[in-house]
Amino acid sequence: MKERIEAIIQHERLTPSQFADSIGVQRSGVSHILSGRNNPSVDFLNKLLSKYPHISGDWLITGQGSMLSSPKISSQPTEQLSIPVEEEKPKTSFKMPSKKVREEEQAPYKTVASKEKAVAPSLPDRTEVRSIERIVVFYTDKSFSEYRPE
Prior knowledge:
The protein is mainly alpha-helical. It has helices at residues 2-11, 16-23, 27-35, 42-51, 57-62, 103-114; strands at 135-138, 144-147. The chain contains six helices and two strands.
């Protein structure tokens, strides 16, 4: 593994001291690894791979495959790509109390439920401004807390 770490330092065109500083480890630790006195720790390898994600972790550990897992990212500014990301829905661990709700009270919820699959949901076509009246949190011991915005 010592040879592979030396190859990374050489590939990145750094001195061992610059390399140690870049991954946030003590310079003496890198020196001990390069001299063969110590083997790198899991923390050392984790910091190395976090700082240099283009280095293949499989290659670093086993020596098999290519040193680069993907082409090295240039430090030159490039055009920024905009990729739509679907927002993760919050997970709830409580069940709503079973209560018969009138049809007109359910209408806003039906509108939201029908738009759940949209990547970027838009606001409902309403001219009125809606605000939060209260938030109720139900606990497993059958108690609850109620919060009202001020």
